[in-house]
Amino acid sequence: MKVTPKKHLGQHFLTDSTISARIADSIQGHMGYKHLLEIGPGTGALTDFLLKGDKKITAIEIDNESIPFLHSRYKGQENLTIIHGDFLQTDLNTVEENLLGVTGNFPYNISSQIFFHILEYRDKVPEVVCMLQKEVAERMVGEKDNGILTILLHAWYSIEYLFTVPQYVFDPPPKVMSAVIRLKRNDRKKLGCNEKQFKALIKVAYHNRRKTLRNNLKSLNLPTEYLANEYFTKRAEELGVDEFVKLTNEIEELKRK
Ligand code: SAH
């Protein structure tokens, strides 16, 4: 049985088991979770090493061809459940009632969507250890200078860059370098402002990232005196989570008046 790598599914199979082992070893079990979800097991390059750990594994794979391959490879493997499906459409509450770690060599073409989906379950997912494009990984580590997804992730997770992975350990090799990062749920329980407004504000603030906040926030019809403040000569990429929380509250207050 063979699985032909498919470009549209972002399939680049790991061929170097030392990398798989390093990814698996980077999983710390933050907050003591017992169940790990692997996104995109492919042919099992990483799954093999996850199974050496002490956690129950659920692997979710979208590819029709991978599924029978995985079933035959892991026949009789008790602590592994293989699901044929799309992670982005998966309700994580149906996978596990309690805490659930997430890992994988992510399909790079949908990595942002994967993180947006994880964010919906942030109180359930204490840790994410994953491989993605190096450039994306580097951008995600810094809270500022990055756009909506990074700000949202940093609100709930601390993010560490772990190591870089070269192209030649994949079949087929991707065009770009890869990197492994780890996200750990921080102790923030509440955002401290209305979340919908927070997201809307970040979106507006980043509308044109080269422009000042004053310029981007014009569309919100705020009082001119408010935007006249020196503060609004900053650009969105100079602001972190807490500053966006504060701004969201201030703007809501102004709108209420
Ligand atoms: N873990 C394997 C494969 C990584 S390639 C390895 O390291 O060798 C990424 C994998 O994600 C592919 O197997 C691809 O089929 C799978 N995939 C792509 N989109 C997916 C989705 N929406 N849900 C689940 N799996 C997906």
Describe this structure in words.
There is one protein chain. The protein is an alpha/beta fold. It folds into two domains: 7-185, Rossmann fold, CATH 3.40.50.150; 195-256, Orthogonal Bundle (Helicase, Ruva Protein, domain 3), CATH 1.10.8. The protein contains eleven helices and nine strands. It has a seven-stranded mixed sheet. It is elongated, with a radius of gyration of 21 Å. S-adenosyl-L-homocysteine binds next to strand 1 and strand 3. S-adenosyl-L-homocysteine is lined by residues 9-14, 39-42, 45-46, 60-63, 66, 86-88, 105, 107, 110.
Report the strand count: 9
How big a fraction of the residues is strand? 15-25%
Q: What CATH architecture of the largest domain do you see?
A: 3-Layer(aba) Sandwich
- Alpha carbon gyration radius: 21 Å
Average pLDDT reading? 96
Low-confidence segments: none
Q: Based on helices, strands and strand pairing, what is the structural class? A: alpha/beta
What would the CATH topology of the largest domain be? Rossmann fold
What is the CATH level 1 assignment of the largest domain? Alpha Beta
CATH superfamily of the largest domain: Vaccinia Virus protein VP39
Number of helices: 11
Q: Could you tell me which ligands this complex binds, including any ions or cofactors?
A: S-adenosyl-L-homocysteine
Sheet with the most strands: spatial strand order: 4-3-2-5-6-9-7
The biggest sheet amounts to: 7 strands, mixed
* Order of SSEs: EHEHEHEHEHEHHEEEHHHH
